[in-house]
């Protein structure tokens, strides 16, 4: 058995592990986001006065149900990317871009925590799960000969995917919870 690049197989821990790591991370967010925003919003407004008021109003108006639906919508995206990775042995561009997006998302959480000089939802699992898993999975993909060196374009596409998927998931959450709220009236 050889240990040269390309000889190692990419297993489920690398590909489906993305979904598992994401689930751990988003469990932290589900548990902490609504209460954290309620507690921290006044102090954040005061500390960052240049942020437009519309941003603070929108952030403060996301209810727990809407956020949970958005997390469910994102679960579908991550599950599809993980499955694509599994089916292609990690060669799927969708999977690799989602993996990059996940890792970059974790770095954004850590930057947010640094900016507020304290805990922000998602920052605990970003440092313990998201970033370490992403680095480990990328290392395994490189050893298997599946991943080429990262280019700035790859990072931009990963950040773009994370942004678009997040906005889309929240739009789905807002739409679905708005639809169900309207039905109850």
Q: Which features does this protein show?
A:
transmembrane, mainly alpha, single chain, 79% helix, 0% strand, membrane, HXXEE domain-containing protein, 185 residues, transmembrane helix
Q: How many strand units?
A: 0
Q: How confident overall, as mean pLDDT?
A: 87
Write the element-wise H/E pattern from the N-terminal end onward: HHHHHH
Continuous helix count: 6
Structural class: mainly alpha
Helix content: over 70%
Largest sheet: none
The residue ranges in which pLDDT falls below 50 over 5 or more consecutive positions are 1-7
Please state the overall shape, judged from the principal axes of the Cα atoms.
Answer: globular
The number of distinct structural domains comes to 1
> What amount of the residues lies in strands?
under 5%
Radius of gyration: 18 Å
Task: State the distance separating the first and last CA atoms.
Answer: 66 Å
Per-chain topology:
Blueprint lengths: L11 H36 L5 H9 L2 H24 L5 H24 L6 H21 L8 H33 L1
Helix pairs in contact: 1-2, 1-3, 1-4, 1-5, 3-4, 3-6, 4-5, 4-6
Molecular structure report:
It is globular and about 50 Å long. Helices cover 79% and strands 0% of the residues. It starts with 11 loop residues before the first helix and ends with a helix. The chain has one domain (12-184). The chain is mainly α and 185 residues long. It contains six helices and no strands. Helix 1 crosses helix 2 (53-61).
